[in-house]
């Protein structure tokens, strides 16, 4: 049987080891690998799914833009992202092609195929549309924004 001081040392050593493991196991915050100039009140909240970085750009009581960095939603006809397409426009944004799609259900889907970045939102009014287009027109991958 262990004497009292040996038990104390064991408990202390075990506690220190457990805290060290817990500090290493803490998930690191996810940072979106792109830069967008946000309009006042908007914040980026990034996370991870099984195969990509996902998240939202949102402003309380206003528009929420969801993003997913995997593939190009605007190129996937069978995925349903662009069902009921009313219009599709392409534009260069900071040297990268962007594909903008608007649907009958008032969903805007924007893909940056080269970066595999997709953004989508349900648009409730003209202000939502303006906010989304203004912010996404400033999209840059971290590679581009850090080299400038």
Task: Note the main attributes of this structure.
single chain, 148 residues, alpha+beta, Protein Transport Mog1p, Chain A, seven-stranded antiparallel sheet, two-stranded antiparallel sheet, 3 helices, 9 strands
Helix/strand class: alpha+beta
Distance between the termini: 67 Å
Biggest pleated sheet: 7 strands, antiparallel
Q: What share of residues is helical?
A: 25-40%
Record the strand order, biggest sheet. Answer: 2-3-4-8-7-6-5
Poorly predicted runs of 5 or more residues: 21-26
> Tally the helices: what do you get?
3
Q: In the CATH hierarchy, what is the architecture at level 2?
A: 3-Layer(aba) Sandwich
How many whole angstroms does the radius of gyration measure? 22 Å
Q: CATH class, anyone?
A: Alpha Beta
Portion of residues in beta strands equals 25-35%
Label the overall shape. Answer: globular
Mean pLDDT: 82
Topology pattern, helix = H, strand = E: HEEEEEEEEHEH
Count of strand segments: 9
**CATH topology group:** Protein Transport Mog1p, Chain A
Total number of distinct structural domains: 1
């Amino acid at each position: 049987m262990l004497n009292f001081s040996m038990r104390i040392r064991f408990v202390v050593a075990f506690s220190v080891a457990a805290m060290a493991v817990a500090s290493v196991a803490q998930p690191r915050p996810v940072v979106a690998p792109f830069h967008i100039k946000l309009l006042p009140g908007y914040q980026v909240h990034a996370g991870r799914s099984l195969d990509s970085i996902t998240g939202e750009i949102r402003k309380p009581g206003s528009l929420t833009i969801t993003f997913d960095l995997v593939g190009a939603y605007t190129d996937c006809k069978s995925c349903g992202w662009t069902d009921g397409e009313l219009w599709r426009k392409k534009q260069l944004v900071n040297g990268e092609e962007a594909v903008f799609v608007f649907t009958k259900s008032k969903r805007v889907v924007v893909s940056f195929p080269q970066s595999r970045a997709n953004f989508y939102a349900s648009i409730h009014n003209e202000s939502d549309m303006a906010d989304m287009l203004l912010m996404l027109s400033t999209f840059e991958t971290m590679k581009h924004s850090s080299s400038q």
